[in-house]
Each structure stands twice: as structure tokens, then as C-alpha cells.
Amino acid sequence: MSLADVHGRLSVTAAIFTFVMGVWAVVLFARNRGVDGNYLGAIVVGEMLLIVQAVLGAVLLVQTGGLVSLRWVHILYGVLAALIWPFVFTYTRETPQRAVPPRLESILFGAASLFLWGLVMRAIATAVA
Fold first, then answer.
1. Which residue of 56, 75, 104, 115 pairs with 7 in a disulfide if CB–CB is 3.0 to 4.6 A?
2. For the purposes of burial, counting CB atoms within 10 Å of the CB of 114, is it exposed (0-12), middle (13-18) or buried (19 or more)?
3. What residues contact residue 24 under an 8 Å CB cut-off, 6+ apart?
4. pLDDT tens column, 2-30
5. Are 14 and 120 in contact (CB under 8 A)?
6. CA atoms within 13 Å, Cβ hemisphere of 87
7. In whole angstroms, how far apart are CA 44 and each of 24, 31, 115?
8. What pTM does this model have?
9. pLDDT at 84 over 80
């Protein structure tokens, strides 16, 4: 199996994972609950998956040695995907000036995860064949 195959298969895994995380957060919201340690731990696992995916993409870019057939939007999607969950986590952390209610935190993570799912799907669609 080539590195490109691994990158492609991990992209499907990332799509499924982000969708499941979005549904999980929406269920927490519907139950009037905030995110807990289990959810945040799964977010860390998902973030590691996205970072590994980005590293594999960078290695593939260097191996192919060219940007000739590269679709820049694919790289943009990958960079943005790796930044979404850390941004939401940073935004929702409680500070003395601003406290985010637990239920709002759930829907923010749910919306971000479902947006991330769409972003991963677009990245798959724009991948160089």
C-alpha cells in the first residue's frame, strides 16, 4: 500500500470521525449537557488524526516534487481543518471575563465538528487523483 493510499484512507476515517463527533455534541446539547472529559479526549484523538493526515500530505507533496498538478484549495482545507477544534477549545475555555455556558459549549463543538466534516469532504473531493 502506498503512502497516497494511506493518506486517502485516513481521509475517510477523518470524515467519519468528525461526523460522529458532531452528532455526539448535538446529542449532548439536546440532553442539556456540556462537553465532558470523554468528549474532549476524543477531540484530542481526532486532532491527532488530522495532524497525521496533514503530515502525510506534506510528505506526499515533497515526494512528488511538484506543485504542478496540486490544487491549492486542498492544502487550504487541510490547514483549516487542523485549526478548527483548537480554536473552539480556546474560545470556550472559561476566563474571568467570559464564561461559556456548558450547553453553548456543546453546540459550538457540534457545529464546528459538522463544519469540519464538510471541510474534510471537500478536501477529499478536491484531492488530486
1. 56
2. middle
3. 39, 42, 110, 113
4. 888 999 999 999 999 999 999 999 999 99
5. yes
6. 11
7. 15, 23, 17
8. 0.90
9. yes
